[in-house]
Amino acid sequence: MTNKLFALDIGTRSVVGIILEQHEDKYHVADILVKEHKERAMVDGQIHNVLYVAELIQEIKIILEETHGPLKKVSVAAAGRALKTEQALVTLSIKNRPIFTEEDINRLELQAVQQAQQQLLQHKDDVKNNHYYCVGYSVLYFRLDGEEIGSLLDQQGDEASVEVIATFLPRVVVESLLAALKRADLEMEALTLEPIAAINVLIPPTMRRLNVALVDIGAGTSDIAITDKSTVVAYGMVPTAGDEITESLSDHYLLDFPIAEITKRQMHTSEEILIQDILGFDAYIPRAEVVKAIYPAIENLAKSIGEEILRLNNYVPPKAVMLVGGGSLTPHLPEELGKVLNLPANRVAVRDVNAIQNLTRAEHIPATPELVTPIGIAIAAQKSPIHYMSITVNDQVVRLFELKEMTVGDAFLAANIRAKQLYGKLGHGLSITVNGQNVFVPGEHGQPAKIVLNGETASTKTQIKNGDIIQLIPGKDGADAYATVREIIDEAAVKKITIGKEKYIIEPKVIINEKVVKLDTPIQDRDVIVVQTIATVEDAFSSTNNTKHLQQFSSYCVHLDGKPVYLPEFSSQLFINGKPGKTHYPIQTGDVITFEQITSPSAEQIAASLNLLLEEKVIVTFQQEKVELAKTAREFYVNGQIVQSTTTVPNGATIKIIEKDTGKWIYQDVFRFSTWQLPTAFKGSFTILRNGQPSTFDAEIFGGDQLEIQLSEIK
Fold it and tell me: 361 forms bridges with which residues in the sheet?
């Protein structure tokens, strides 16, 4: 049984009507009719004047009906140049979150697609296009903590980001198509996209695992679609196409634009080109010379298309490029495009109708690249038509344009469900200042929302169909940040040490908003916190009420004649972990502080340290007994008071030592230190001897002298 298909390709310059006969899996092109727009009714693939376009469609319909009978339904395509492509980057803090799951990645991608949609709405040209259908997107890269990574699955870190390239079709494009068809008394049987139409007939699904670019070069624009990994990953358009070549011919040879268009077509068939300029001169010019004249325009066209292909393909050349459309016949375009993409000549090729499998055509229909897309529209609309579908999202009915396998994520896009709604809110954080540094304590991450599709748990990637009911149950909001001082200070700020035999846990002094607080005090937003840590031995003694040791372990010093005199031999010794230390030495957790105490010295010890004697002493032998003679040589004053030689002198005291004028030792001085006396009632004479020699009581004596008084009693 033969099935007759009617399709329309509504382009910028013309409308192509095609009658296709289907017999099982084979197709026959029975008729094609091309009519050019009389006025500028189409701009960038969008119908700007529905009436003019409807009249042209009506005209084509009537002519074809004369041969092929009544035509009630038609397949059409949305122009590839109407597609909007946008890149978007989304970054998410994942600090203190569980590892990334597949659903987390899906929701992050959805957020990036919504970001791309928002960017479209911000463009001045698109202010009125307040709704778009997302026809597909591709992930350019994932990053974790700033480093590019293959996948975020099962990853943890501080920050995750994804950049996508997403393609959208403005809703108004579809609505204007429907309006034009209705005025021409036609019903839309099926709808497709022009790039998909060409791909469906030239690149079957078995080939789409290859990274291939298809370029449909029309009059005003060049439409691009790229396949990879068994799907169409990107769409694009450049406003450079066949008209650039026509204009170049017009400028160089002074041709009217319609004449330049005829001249351009002669280049495909003739070696001698007839040039008829606006001044009325005719000339036949060799094809090679004409090509040379317009070669800069050819290079510019190749450069524009090549750069857009690279951008859409992550700046990597595809494996091959297929060219269709009338502009693909531009001389030397495949070679120049190969240079831009760094591809060999046999990887860039023009494809015509003969490349379409299982297709025959009537004899009057040429096998040109121009007809690939119109034929593709008829076949693609039959094989993989795009329908509307109605979905209920949280009791709201949304209509989706079924451009691909639709998912829950697509339904959320259509229902304006923001990606942020897929997670509970992040709890409020605390912004504080600690010792002059700004510190942020984040709130708890929210729990993911639950997605229910027809009563069953689902994800954003779950496929949907017409009539499905989706419920989004909000996730639990994260708790606000809560922390005590103890939780935000460094663990090293709390020290465990031993002083002598006592163990101490020493906490830092904490001041919040100029008020001293304890470590377990909760922090409030905007608090200004000062943490004074215990850093030295001196700090440790002060905080543990051991201040009595501080003076003891400072260097022993007295002030003599207004100058400090340090006497380290009288300083007590401090030890940190068994090694000598000072009170200004730093301490760490686990340190053991011990000390060797020395009592304060006496006045005599200080004088001896200064090589001064407080007393002058000599020892002599008197009457066969040792006698020590002593007299004050210097007076010792402590803080203005005279003291004994045995008096203890405190650290830091002011001392004064005054020398006394001491005379010579004489013989009679010995009697002040000796207990010897003349016998009672002694009568007689005595002899004074010094070292066995006669002497006198006023004679000078020296230490070690032998002194003796010999008595001679009178009988």
Answer: 29
